[in-house]
Fold:
Amino acid sequence: MPEIIVEGINGFRLREASLTNDFVDAIAKTTYDPQTRRACGEQACTTITTKWAWHTVSPEVFARAYHTAIQHYQTRSRRQRIGYLYTGMFGWRVREIKQRIRAGVLKLRGSL
Structure:
């Protein structure tokens, strides 16, 4: 998470190649130097509450979700869109009617 953690300022990065050594070094730095531990913790708290607070990131999250939903909707055919709309609105009723039509219990005109 390079966009969140600044090495030695608000946390410590652990590299995959030397995970154990990096972890031990980070623990040693924070254990033996209370000033570093406190400063790092305070800066981490400030970073999260200013850059990553919900009121800060929610507009971007909603914009991405909306954009993805629109793209997904536009890539479907008209028939799929309408079917999705009706299934979403009536759910189980649409499935039940389709099953009854297939079974020959309902005739399309006049029986619905």
In short: The chain has two domains: 1-75, 77-112. The radius of gyration is 28 Å.
